[in-house]
Write a structure and sequence with these properties.
Structural class: mainly alpha
Mean pLDDT: 88
Distance between the termini: 25 Å
Strand content: under 5%
Low-confidence stretches: none
Number of helices: 15
Shape: globular
Number of strands: 0
Amino acid sequence: MNKRKRKIAEDALSLFLEKGIMQTSIQDIIERAGISKGTFYNYFASKNECVGAILEQIRYEAGLIRNELLIGKDPKDVDLFIEQIAVPDRVSEKRGLHAMFEEIFHSGDPELKKLVLRHRLFELEWLAGRFVDIFGEPLRPYALESAVLFYGMLHHLLLAAKIIHQRTLSVKTVASSVMHYMRYINDALIHDQTAVLDPEYLRIFKEVNLREEQPDVADVIAMLKELSENPGLTKKQLQLTQALLHEMEQHVLRDAVIDALLQPFTESFKDSPHYQTAKEISSATWYYLKRQQLK
């Protein structure tokens, strides 16, 4: 999402949190963002499409944090996975988004509900991929079903805790217990053929419903070039940026070299104005490499 579109979405989100989605008009968003009606419609066909962009931005923010946690770490580390599971809830709480989700569920608007469903499907797809990392390739045909079972248990246990006022129970605590159960469930999916969802139907469903623009190597190179041209970089920051840029421009990417560069590259920008940019570059690079490895 480009900066202008993101700014409009952020202004819209502030209104949705203040007034509610239903009580916020497109004119309200236009006035808050200080733009013309034509500019709004250049980016969004409707208010609901603006809500969809906000959900996309939430996924992007959570993805950055999750990918940052993974850089230089073992993808099979269950404790690391538990940390990643808690990220969307932290992002939603920090941004005050729980109320917005509640409003959507009670709105009766089928288009808004479909947007939230799609948002959750992306979360299931992410989880399915991480389960393959942790439990191995034999789980891949059943990974989405495994993800559905995991989230079903996680969310219903959290709901039950809320109902009985057990408010000290955290997402991480519940996720840790559920992961213990998943070892037995995934073993049954793989060896006992207990799966009920048809992998071919799942494949077709994902192709139709889970299409989303993803960063490619050209995006990463463009971000690195822009960063390298900044005159405020230290010598170390510039050298690491140029080294990563050099690797990303190669015809055949050297995954091990790039992976070794990502953590020192990101850490070199800590406490600098470019830290967020460096994290975005690292996340986009890691995600691109991960997709290439799965092809």
